Amino acid sequence: MIPKFTSLGSCLLLLFLLSCLSGCTSNVEKSRSFKTIFDHYRDKDGVGAIGFPPGLLSLVLDQDDPDQVELKGLMKELSSFSMLFVEEGSEAVDLKEELSIVVTDFTGRNEFQDLFRLQSGGDDMFIRILEKDGKVREAILMIDSDNSFTVIDLRGNIDIKHFSRLVEGGYLNDLTEFSDLDL
To answer: Which residues of 126-158 are buried (b: 16+ CB within 10 A; e: fewer)?
Structure first.
């Protein structure tokens, strides 16, 4: 039996409750935050997820390796690091395609700017950034190839020079190697 609402106050209360319920459901396709995407995909079969405070990176990086100087400099400017990667398997192709579309739509909808893009055959790699006051506030790195898929979200107060040096020095692979850690 549907209750009868006789007063304007009751109708407004019902509308308020219904709007709260619809606000509680997450629609990853319309997300304004990468965290929503990360939370949606991290528990799916075939997806690996890593998220940690960048300060913990000092435990993993070789402090004496001169090749990791730029990566260490970048990590000092970060407040958040999260990564999703699709593991190899029968569902990998569908997951890679779905996640690639979601990330590409997310960066477009939220007005990220291309900093770097490389497309060759079926491979696609990009770095897209949100800048404010001359600093990068958020960067999305996506690497989609035949045998792997990785997306990394970096947040902080990041100097743009770190990204140019990462690309020029070929250090992007160092970031994606976190998916190889035996945790």
So the answer is: bbbbbeeeeebebbbbbbbeeebbbbbbbbbeb
Q: What is the pTM of this model?
A: 0.74
| Number of Cβ atoms within 10 Å of the Cβ of 80 | 15
Please count the residues of the chain.
183
Residue scoring higher pLDDT (22 or 134): 134
Separation between Cα atoms, residue 124 and residue 137, nearest integer Å: 23
The tokens for 89 are 């398997």
pLDDT at site 175: 58
